[in-house]
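All the exercises in this workshop are built on plain-text protein records. A record pairs a protein's sequence with a compact description of its fold. Read left to right, the backbone structure tokens trace the chain's path through space. Once this layout is familiar, the rest of the handout is easier to follow. Here is such a record, shown just as it appears in the course material:
>
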Amino acid sequence: MNTLYPLKFKPLFREKIWGGQKMKSSLGLNIAPHTDTGEAWMLSGVPGSQTKVANGFLKGNELNELLEIYMDELVGEKNFAKHKEEFPILVKFIDANDWLSVQVHPDDALASKRKLGGGKTEMWYVLDAVPGAQLISGFNRKISRDFYTRNVKEKTLGNILNFETVGKGDVFYIPAGRVHALGPGILLAEIQQTSDTTYRIYDWDRVDKEGKAREMHTELALDAIDFTVPQSYRTGYAASENHTVSLVQCPYFMTNLLDFNLPIVKDYSEIDSYVIFICLDGDAEIASVSGKESITKGEVLLIPAFLDKIALFPRPSCKILEVYNV
């Protein structure tokens, strides 16, 4: 068996009624022949939507095919024991050129009960935002289930939702159950559990090119919603150049920020996990025992678990999200 190496994948692009052109203009991705591109699935093991390797001798193989062959060498012993032949994380870029629907995702328990597989907890890292851009995360006050239902029926949901004005570098953790939506002018990286289950609550009364409204999931969403109101919806962190900065720690993924202009050596021998690099800006060379690979803005690189010593060399600077399981 040939040795594993840092893997790049061919993106899967999704046309959306709210999509735009920033995948191309800001991230340099080749979205042709697409126009209103809302999502780029950069790393996916979702059945029917698996990304394929774009580099090296494994080129053309789907992500979950690699899991069948390499198992714990690819994802680590704990991850393989838990997830078997399904990759546990889905990585996307999202370009919101208009409001996304107000939606919610089920947690593991509800998803299992409804035979949907796993739940969907996610996080957002804002890559770019026009001045005044907003998103929705949760509610702006403590409300009852009945009060929520009344606002949905009366189409006054916007009165009870929490709107946040966002800028480049902002981070939002969106646990399963939290009502949320992205507003126009936002480009971001999304890291989430491998799931494509979404319950739409409200879609701004719009219709598609055929004059049809999208399906709503009002009743299905009701049992999924967490009405808890946290102290803050925004994830705070202190940026520190040439250091690993923790952003989000949750049961499904750990995400750190690496903003560096000096070489960094990473020892992953204690984490027993694959590592994902999401390049937000700049350029770097990645060196390991299997050779060298480059990463540049708009690219995602999967480091197999068995490659537990990695060196990163900025050219001349680089900003990366580092994602893994613990």
